[in-house]
Amino acid sequence: MTRSLACSLAIVLTLGSCARLGIGAAEKKEEPSPYGATGIPPQLRVKNGDSGTAVQAGGNISANPMESFFTPPEDIVYTDPDNPEAAIPELSTLLSAPKRGPWEESETIARQFSVREGKPMLIWFTDSQGSPMCKALSQELFSTNDFGNWATENLVRLRVDDHVKITDPNMSIDDATDRQLRIKDYNAKLKKRYKVMGYPSLIVVSPGGEVVGRYRGYKRGDAQFTWGQLKQAKAVSDSAYQGWRKGMEKKGYREWEDRKGRKIFAKLISYSKGELILIEPNGDRARTRETVLSDKDRAWIDEQKKLRNID
Prior knowledge:
Helix content: 25-40%
Oligomer: single chain
Distance between the termini: 9 Å
Largest sheet: 5 strands, mixed
Order of helices and strands: HHEHHHEHHEHEEHEEEEH
Radius of gyration: 22 Å
């Protein structure tokens, strides 16, 4: 019976039993933006070519958004084939990870937060030591309390600094040098991936992987203008995210919640004797027990059993 339940759940979540679960209903057609293709009001559009331009959601990615955002194949570390579940962490451990800081330094961590929280990722490519305009942008906008409070509520921030300095007193000179070189190589790959040509450069990426804002350069006194651009990019991201999320839900992804109210957007790929294995859109997996899930999730599992006449 356990094997039957696992197979049945895998089929319904993979193929999408839309008629039974009420997924895939016709969407209301949205009215075209009154601001044209970019969706940017005239007062928020860039003032010159050096500042970059906002990017219309969906207009700059491949047919498969996973290719441009989620973990590239070469970065995936597979589990032991003789024990494929050995490296799957407990969901409680995953959800109790340290809270994010003001600025993340790892794109992998930042995009995990972005997908889990449904917030766009702001990537700030900077040279904190060599660029006067990067220092001005930090002083006039990014270091202010007003922006910090707004960004914490609305964004996941990632800083990619061309100036790399290792100050860990517990590391040897050789280890510090090696780490510095690896960070520089990592940053160079990010610059190439996002086509960054100068500093400062700001890239806004929706949780679904679309670049919805791209801005280069900064002028002193333009803090409010730059903030306005980021607010508009956030609005475009919210719209794009809703469409992406609905598409993922049709593929079997849904929001799961534990007894402590912590949530994760994932798909059920295995169920056996009350144990579930979930997978997030970026490929991260987690295991958990049915008993630690919310009443809503447990009711959903019971519904799936009833649909298949399984006790």
